[in-house]
Amino acid sequence: MEQLELPKAETIELSEVLKHDPPLMTPIEFERWRADRLNQEHGNLVGYDCPDCLNRGVFHRVDAQGRRYLQECKCMVIRRNKERIMRSGLDDLLRRYSMEKWQTPEKWQAAARDVMERYAQNPHGWVLASGPSGTGKTHLCTALCGLLMERGVDVHYMLWREVSVQAKAMVINESEYQRIVNPLKRVKCLYIDDLFKTGKGQQPTTGDVNLAFEILNSRYNDSSKLTIISTERSIEELLSIDEAVGSRIYERCQEFYLSLEGRGNWRLTK
User: Taking the domain 77-269, which CATH number applies?
Assistant: First the structure.
């Protein structure tokens, strides 16, 4: 009968098992036992304390043929989001702008919070928060991103004025342009902060409109993609800037549209 040859380290482990459990294990049973032991070990990942994988980031698995493989823990989405947030500069905003810190002295503020929390519980479609500067758009959208990330949703932050300038500068360099734009199309949830933000008295350029259409049309065509947008532009203004862009936003965000027009600049009351 052919004998199973095991590496020395595993032979030691197997011998330890046999001391306590005399019946022989099949190779697949041994691999599964070994995977269970590895899954009990603590890892050294930092930034988020995961009770499931014990901060390893992976689970050791064995398939029906006895082959080992690694399965990523859902906490890795949260860890990547935290890293992305830190790189994007939203890390500071998340510390300042949580749903717990959103004050609701007036009914409209409570209603706005309820819309965001309802979306976080069952995320689908798009969210649009429009209104003048200082009305709480960034606070609400940032807090919503935090709630989604807690639920393991992959979120990417896009500060419109910054990224649009970078992308437009690379439009003649196809590979660099796609390097910037493709992640914005593919990520599960994209947060566009201050869409079509311009200097005082200025309007978005043709390049701005083309970029917005390319990103939003790609996401519009995939109903599984989530998109959160904050802007100082009303729906009517978005439609007047470009009907194709505005109509897609309007269609996708009807259930989760927050108009903060006329609410006043709350920064000036603090």
Answer: 3.40.50.300
